[in-house]
Amino acid sequence: TFLFQISLANIYYVSTTGNDSSGDGSAGMPWRTLKYAVTRVSANQDHTIQLSAGTFIENGLIEVPLGVSVIGAGMDQTILRAASSFYYNPATPGYATDKFLISLNEFNQLNGNQMLKGFSIDGDSKQLHAGIYVRHRNNVTIDDVKVQNTNFTGIWLWDVKDSKLINSQLI
After folding, report:
1. Over the stretch 13-31, which tens digit does the pLDDT of each residue have?
2. What counts of helices (H) and strands (E) characterise the chain?
3. What CA–CA distance (Å, rounded) separates 164 from 143?
4. How far apart are CA 66 and CA 104, in angstroms?
5. pLDDT above 70: residue 59
6. Is 17 left (phi over 0), alpha (psi -120 to 50) or beta?
């Protein structure tokens, strides 16, 4: 008896011209926001969310599931910003992991086996608390990512193994 596994990995699409209400994540009917897309894509199936070029205004914390990669059109082509309702910029910034724009966070140490690549996060003159938070997720690659003008921190890697930050910029 042969036991084999067929890869069920899919690519889902997010575009500045997409629609979270009527889109299905296909190339022809993309979603509008990454925040919505991460709630629709199943964890641990090697799925990828492909962001188009353009500027996306995201309305809150984006919690990326295990095993889901987020790939933009390029560091200076795909830009993520927070909606003003998610701004958090106290005079003395501190520990507030729920105020990062993107979070890859687990309670126990787990393998993420995922990538964040090809986009920028713009903190709108330090009105966004922080960019990317990765905790207890192993095997995460952050490549060709720029985080600029955040209030507290750009990228925080905490308790991770076999992860890397390459070809990226923190401003």
Report:
1. 999 999 999 999 999 999 9
2. 1, 11
3. 8
4. 8
5. yes
6. alpha
